[in-house]
Amino acid sequence: MTTFEAGNITLHKVREHVWEIPPEDGMRVPARVFASERLLEEIADDKSLQQLKNTTHLPGIEKYAICMPDGHQGYGFPVGGVAAIDAENGCISPGAVGYDINCGVRMVKTNLTYDDVSGMEEELVEALFDAVPTGLGGGGIVQGDRDTVDAVLERGVDWAREEGYAVKSDLEHCEDEGVRPDADPSAVSQKAKDRGRNQLGSLGSGNHFLEVQRVTDVFDADIADAYGLEADQIVILIHCGSRGLGHQVCNDYLRDIEQAHSGLLSKLPDKELAAAPAGSQLAEDYYGAMCAAINFAWVNRQLITHQTRTVFADVFGEPWEDLGMELLYDVAHNIAKKEVHDVDGEDKELYVHRKGATRAFPAGRPEVPSAYRDVGQPVIIPGSMGAGSYVLCGGEQSLDISFGSTAHGAGRLMSRTQAKDEFWGGDVQDDLRGQEVYVKAESGATIAEEAPGVYKDVDEVVSVSDALGIGDKVVRVAPVCNIKG
């Protein structure tokens, strides 16, 4: 197959797993999809390809807009999308970041093996569910006053370290050491701060989760050793974001940008791509507010890590330090960052929008923590509750073909409404229990929405990333127990 027809959109095969929509009808650059033929058919089932085409109309976009193999329809911009836009002459778009700013994942290692946990799954899942707030609305580990929220927004994980919720190595193994220095708490509305004040240290709802996992496959023993991972090891994966605060930041700035920059908006094919021109006051304010929300999300995951360490110490009767509960890495999914990339032989500062996409820098890039700089950044790709997840390493080709990015997960196949029509939470829970996976959630509806059948094949998503050299397979992990909102 050399072309793929999706309604009125034709994609041309550039090479294996790379499909391109040539520029037409006002597109500033081509659009590219990284996918196998099967995944491309799934991506074409919704509005993802049209949204990707629309993205190419943004001023200052460089090279091409990208959809990753886990791509699916989002708000204005496809989830699984990457767009790198000139930070001096382009724009920044809240819709190309998303509502859950710095939705991301972190993996915590242990020195436990599967045999150490076997038989204790129910006790562990109940204890974790009791210790980590889940679900919609309020309820967090820390009830923050105004000064606390401002400190979190400004200082990120360093605030958690000073308050006793983190240790120095947590900062050293987090993207950007857990703080965006461009954060501006004053650019975050009081309404946003009020929404986040009682949610510090909570999973939230939807696809957010905390999952105990075991390493089942090692693909690259040398990099796995550098990451401190080995077969049969128990690890913990935490997936959540900036909660109501990040959602409100996105909403606030979308509305403000729509009004203040209506001229630019009128030239875009979708108002959900509302963008502020680089250098404008709203672009600066949104960037500062977004960076503050990024810090909030990192602290949110750090507080959940603290609770998780406490639970494991209680259940296994040893201090968490003796259980080897060190952070492997924390990486953001929904983010726009100023990064310098080579564009046609010239270094340019770009707003790299990654919405449902993961940074995947290879060895040598200075932003990679020193512990991993010689091998490349860890990349964590969660799958469904029944399919397992992956740890990858930033691939050698990622800077050349994807602005240092890869997929962020399995990607949804169906909406939450459709999932609840097709699955019954109790049945899903029983099926998973038959596979020795213990799941606890606020409601059966949540479990139905997140049933394994709702998601794409994570193995195939990761295989595309690996084949393209943008994220190389290191280990695969399988779920043991899982809590959800």
Automatic annotation (TrEMBL):
Active site: 408 (gmp-histidine intermediate)
GO biological process, one term: tRNA splicing, via endonucleolytic cleavage and ligation
Ligand binding (Mn(2+) 1): 100, 208
Family per similarity comment: Belongs to the RtcB family.
Protein name (Swiss-Prot/TrEMBL): tRNA-splicing ligase RtcB
Enzyme Commission number(s) of this protein: 6.5.1.-
Reaction catalysed by this enzyme: a 3'-end 2',3'-cyclophospho-ribonucleotide-RNA + a 5'-end dephospho-ribonucleoside-RNA + GTP + H2O = a ribonucleotidyl-ribonucleotide-RNA + GMP + diphosphate + H(+); a 3'-end 3'-phospho-ribonucleotide-RNA + a 5'-end dephospho-ribonucleoside-RNA + GTP = a ribonucleotidyl-ribonucleotide-RNA + GMP + diphosphate
Cofactor note: Binds 2 manganese ions per subunit.
InterPro entries documented for this protein: RtcB, RtcB-like_sf
Keywords on record: GTP-binding, Ligase, Manganese, Metal-binding, Nucleotide-binding
Organism whose genome encodes this protein: Natronomonas pharaonis (strain ATCC 35678 / DSM 2160 / CIP 103997 / JCM 8858 / NBRC 14720 / NCIMB 2260 / Gabara) (Halobacterium pharaonis)
Needed cofactors: Mn(2+)
Molecular-function GO term, any one: RNA ligase (ATP) activity
Description of how the protein assembles with itself and partners: Monomer.
A Pfam cross-reference name: RtcB
Biased composition annotated in UniProt, kind: Basic and acidic residues: 173-183
